[in-house]
Design brief:
Elements: H1 6-21, E1 31-34, E2 39-42, E3 47-48, H2 53-63, H3 76-80, H4 94-106, H5 110-135, H6 140-153, H7 156-162, H8 176-193, H9 204-214, E4 224-225, E5 232-233
Antiparallel strand pairs: 1-2, 2-3, 4-5
Helix pairs in contact: 1-6, 2-5, 5-6, 6-9, 8-9
Length: 234
């Protein structure tokens, strides 16, 4: 079974962290309220209350036994009911503001960082990796493209984008690089025309990856500079 080298996985996570929080590897403390129906988003790759991934992180944090977990226990029921979803970001209830403050402070806790790492791997990396292996994708940049979809739209979103173009992956006899380029083109168009206009501004993610393709950096060899936000990884 193909295994992506661990150093390439770290580079991919660095890139996604930059896309999600503006920091290499991501910022474990970043806490944002989105007006698009997602509710609170949190952590290095922005877990979402509506999807349940934020709930899973809080539960894992409590299970791992951090001394700070007691502050989050009273909010579990609200999170499980998607209770942070549907509010005006400019007029949030006090309990949601307090929850966001607690989450932000907990991001400095090594146990919270462990909880995030484990949940992001279980919810997003591993389901994505299964799909990459099934398609016989082996290039690190290919995995970056698919993981970006997994984090940004959920692992199920990968098959949704695949239905938008006819290029075949290696498992179907196709060329991996041509498949990735077709996937990026389809996903960029989907983001640019989505009914949720908040997604239109995220096409830069595809543009940044296309820049790496233009540089022929399929192996994600460092150092390289992302197009936007402009950050050099070394």
């Amino acid at each position: 079974m193909f295994q992506l080298p661990s150093d390439k996985k770290r580079i991919i996570e660095d890139v996604i962290g930059i896309f999600e929080t503006g920091k290499r590897g991501g910022d474990y403390s970043t806490t944002v309220y989105l007006a698009d129906g997602a509710g609170i988003t949190y952590g290095k790759h922005q877990a979402i209350d509506k999807s349940g991934s934020l709930d899973a992180i809080v539960k894992r944090y409590i299970k791992l036994g951090s001394r700070g977990a007691g502050k989050l226990k009273p909010y579990l029921e609200m999170l499980e009911a998607n209770g942070t979803v549907g509010f005006d970001p400019m007029n949030l209830p006090d309990n949601i503001k307090e929850l966001m403050r607690i989450l932000n402070a907990a991001g400095d806790d090594l146990i919270m960082q462990q909880a995030q790492d484990e949940v992001f791997d279980e919810w997003y990396w591993e389901p994505m990796a299964i799909q990459c292996r099934e398609m016989q994708l082996t290039l690190p940049l290919s995995w970056l493209v698919v993981y970006d979809s997994s984090i940004h739209s959920g692992p199920k979103g990968i098959s949704y984008i695949r239905k938008m173009f006819t290029e075949m992956p290696p498992s179907g006899g196709g060329d991996e690089k041509l498949w990735v380029k077709a996937y990026i083109k389809a996903r960029r168009n989907w983001l640019a025309t989505h009914k949720k206009t908040i997604l239109h501004a995220t096409v830069y993610r595809m543009d940044s990856i296309l820049q790496l393709i233009e540089e022929d950096n399929w192996e994600l060899t460092i150092p390289f500079t992302l197009f936007r936000p402009r950050v050099t990884l070394s």
